[in-house]
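Methionyl-tRNA formyltransferase: structure, please.
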Amino acid sequence: MKVVFMGTPEFSVLPLEEINKYHNVELVVTQEDRKKGRGKKLLPPEVKLAAENLGLKVYQPENINSEESIEVLRNIEADVFVVVAYGQILKQEILDMPKYGCINIHASLLPKLRGAAPINRAIIDGDKETGISIMKMNKGLDTGNVALSESISIENLNSEQLALELSKMGSKLILKFLEDVENGNIVYKPQDESISTYAEKITKQTAYIDFNSMNTFQIDRLVRGMTDRGGAIAQYKGDRIKIFDVESIDDGSNEKPGKVLSGLKVKTLDGAIEIKELQMPGKKRMDSKSFMLGNRLEEGTILGE
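Here you go.
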């Protein structure tokens, strides 16, 4: 089958690699190289690196809906476009172009968590499970009919770990879809609009821990949900601590939420947490044992003030 693949971040790499094993990937479309990090170095998307490693042709249009881009796509005469976290909205002319349509690998159990941040929000919101939906795209935001889906228990996974598991799952399901659609065995099911939810965009403000309003469970979920977004943030003496892992511990004291009890233990509304991995300003990300060798959080300090 002739495939045009559209994707940008690490989450898209495994599906690209798997599709390329069994089908003809005629073109890989990805976002433009971006300046990242403190040095603002121009870096390519992860999908571009993977595509080049596979010897595939890469196309990085500023606007996928431009006349030039549409002409490039039309000339390929692809059977299907597979879209995985590409990052641009496709106009109807593109959606109608391939024989089998534009197929999206979406990281939630649609219609739940439509939008750009379903993995992070599933964890932060306290969901017990999430999954992958293989959806035929239409002009709405993740509203198309679903062909295949599969669920996974979130348990104690953080956003980095969950993204990897869902990427593997998406790779498996898209191969099944491509086989089934060639054999005429695909049945699409409309989404139930009455139970749809939206995965709100992750912002800088999302990352902040509010010890006065969040209980231990909510703090744990926020920390795990922000692992791939630079960590959750706690204010400490006017600086920002980035927190990547915590452990819930029992504490029946009446201390103020956010108070540093000892070491890396911090009081919460209904107990306490112990910080297991963090990053201080200007320092590297490190586990608690490494941090405690030469650093301390001042006991009695209130995080968030």
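Notes: The domain at 204-302 is CATH 3.10.25.10 (Methionyl-tRNA Fmet Formyltransferase; Chain A, domain 2).
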